[in-house]
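Hi R.,

As promised on Friday, here is the backbone we talked about, encoded as structure tokens. Could you run it through your design pipeline when you get a chance and send me back a sequence?
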């Protein structure tokens, strides 16, 4: 007769029971729950079906293997119980602890708190994070009203239809850090064998974007703050040391060393708001004291500030004690300034100046100025109180200015050839002419410069230039117009073109919206519209010839006619500077004038 198994052996093998609803429940004993002290069982229900018995047996074998390898959850504790024990042992600052408890109360417990620790998986976490990024109140998408009070009340305009507001990615990351820290403890306590948080993906961190005030804005801020020397000293110290607002509010007089060769401020304590206790003096954020070296100007500012403090203390018959606060509203400096009051005063000041900034960005200003000045990130991190040996500093500030990038730029600049001298428009045309008429004008200008054609001599005629340079007569005329624009040729009265007697330095061509109408031959001064024959040229080629009634002295009218002719011929009006127009009086062999329009005229 076979031996009957003991209850201990039955528990060790596990059991498969049929439930009233037809499901099969697999149960395997997994030891004593370290949280409750009771027996802990692994259970799973299998839906009814033809393969239910086989699936239940597979689950039983899996449970037994996990128990044997100690990979199973050793407790049936919930996530709420885990978080409660984790936060009770939290070693961070009270402010951070209060923030974490708020996140647990508002976001984690309502959704995940009831789950057993071993039930949380990456899929559940990703869904949870996605829901928070959709709507912070986790609405189900149904219409509802957000009431201004949870108590019975008469609705007014403060009770409005619900609008989904996502939770900030930074807040979701905080929630992830809370769960991750708690589950690390759970694995260390052997509540779990595998940490599901290792496979979860919180939102990516926001890109660092420090926006310190510019040098000009910083100067305005300092000048405005110095209306009150004590306030100006605080702003100056915050700007040069990069200390946090709670840190410079907590500086004691004894922490300031202004002796020659030892000019430092020793940051040992900071003012912070403790939950339930208000503003109080506490350790620094990183729990590490640090000394900050002072520049000569800051030393002078602080010496003057301490002299004022001692004078005020003497006036009321007390001595400025070493444990007095460096910045205080009391005559004997016995009380500290609260960080919020400093922030409010600073915000009002910059608002008067029309500058969008905050007092924390003085810290950014100090950091970016140090890095821009070539100070290595490790030293900057030490002054700012960043942990990680400069990693945080690089993450926060290399998006703004990179020391390595500056060194690279300096090295590149040292190896570059000498920067070319910037030429004006006339010099550019003369040094590198693009069109034939420009090349001819540059050649004639060279003859004038070396006095091959002396001042006062007649200018070369258009016919001679056309024959000498093998160009059209119109191109030669345009060259003479260009030389006249440069001031190298001039006309005395009704005489021919001559080389100018006194040559001024070449200037740029006429400014925007100025129309050029420069005569080549003797030009009368008509004042009435008359019938004229017009020939339009484009780079030495005739485009069109037509007649119209026009006042040849009206430059604006000439420009309009030329622009219209360019459009009718299929040209681009934006390239009107490449066109010229000869104006003929019927019966006269030579044109009355040649018209060239400025390329900027519209």
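Update: got your reply. Pasting your designed sequence below so it's all in one thread:
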């Amino acid at each position: 007769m076979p031996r009957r198994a003991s209850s201990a052996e039955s528990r060790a093998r596990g059991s498969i029971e049929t439930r009233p609803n037809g499901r099969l429940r697999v149960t395997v004993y997994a030891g004593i729950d370290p949280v409750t002290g009771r027996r802990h069982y692994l259970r799973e229900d299998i839906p009814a079906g033809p393969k239910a018995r086989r699936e239940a047996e597979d689950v039983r074998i899996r449970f037994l293997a996990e128990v044997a390898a100690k990979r199973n959850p050793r407790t049936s504790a919930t996530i709420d119980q885990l978080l409660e024990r984790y936060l009770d042992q939290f070693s961070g600052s009270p402010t951070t602890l209060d923030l974490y408890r708020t996140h647990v109360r508002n976001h984690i417990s309502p959704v995940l708190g009831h789950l057993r620790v071993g039930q949380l998986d990456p899929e559940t976490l990703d869904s949870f994070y996605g829901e928070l990024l959709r709507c912070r109140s986790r609405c189900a998408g149904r219409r509802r009203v957000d009431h201004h009070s949870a108590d019975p009340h008469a609705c007014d305009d403060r009770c409005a239809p619900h609008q989904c507001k996502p939770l900030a990615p930074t807040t979701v990351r905080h929630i992830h850090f809370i769960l991750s820290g708690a589950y690390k403890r759970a694995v260390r306590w052997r509540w779990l064998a595998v940490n599901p948080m290792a496979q979860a993906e919180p939102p990516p961190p926001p890109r660092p974007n420090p926006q310190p005030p510019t040098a000009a804005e910083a100067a305005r801020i300092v000048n405005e703050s110095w209306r009150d020397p004590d306030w100006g000293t605080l702003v100056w110290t915050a700007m040069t040391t990069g200390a946090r607002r709670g840190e410079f509010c907590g500086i004691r007089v004894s922490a300031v060393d202004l002796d020659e060769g030892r000019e430092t401020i020793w940051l040992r304590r900071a003012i912070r708001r403790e939950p339930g206790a208000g503003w109080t003096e506490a350790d620094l954020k990183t729990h590490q004291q640090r000394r900050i070296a002072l520049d000569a100007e800051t030393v002078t500012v602080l010496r003057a500030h301490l002299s004022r403090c001692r004078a005020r203390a003497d006036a009321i018959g007390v001595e400025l004690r070493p444990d007095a606060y460096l910045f205080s509203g009391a005559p004997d400096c016995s009380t500290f300034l609260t960080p919020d009051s400093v922030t409010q005063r600073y915000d009002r000041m910059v608002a008067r100046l029309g500058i969008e900034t905050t007092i924390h960005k003085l810290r950014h200003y100090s950091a970016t100025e140090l890095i821009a000045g070539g100070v290595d990130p490790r030293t900057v991190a030490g002054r700012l109180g960043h942990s990680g040996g400069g990693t945080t500093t690089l993450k926060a500030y290399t998006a703004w200015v990179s020391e390595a990038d500056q060194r690279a730029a300096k090295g590149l600049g040292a190896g570059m050839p000498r920067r070319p001298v910037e030429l004006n428009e006339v010099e550019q045309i003369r040094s590198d002419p693009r069109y034939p008429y420009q090349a001819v004008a540059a050649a004639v200008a060279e003859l004038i410069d070396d006095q091959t054609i002396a001042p006062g001599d007649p200018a070369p005629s258009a016919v001679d230039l056309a024959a000498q340079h093998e160009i059209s007569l119109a191109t030669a005329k345009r060259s003479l117009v260009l030389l006249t624009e440069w001031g190298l040729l001039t006309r005395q009265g009704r005489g021919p073109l001559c080389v100018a007697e006194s040559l001024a330095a070449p200037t740029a061509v006429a400014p925007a919206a100025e129309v050029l109408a420069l005569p080549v031959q003797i030009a009368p001064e008509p004042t009435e519209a008359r019938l004229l024959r017009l020939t339009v040229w484009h780079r030495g080629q005739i485009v069109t010839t037509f007649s119209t009634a026009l006042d040849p002295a009206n430059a604006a009218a000439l420009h309009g006619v030329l622009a219209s002719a360019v459009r009718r011929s299929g040209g681009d009006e934006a390239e009107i500077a490449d066109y010229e127009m000869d104006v003929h009086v019927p019966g006269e062999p030579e044109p009355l004038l040649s018209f060239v329009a400025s390329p900027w005229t519209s």
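One thing I noticed while checking it: The two ends are 115 Å apart (CA to CA).

Thanks again,
M.
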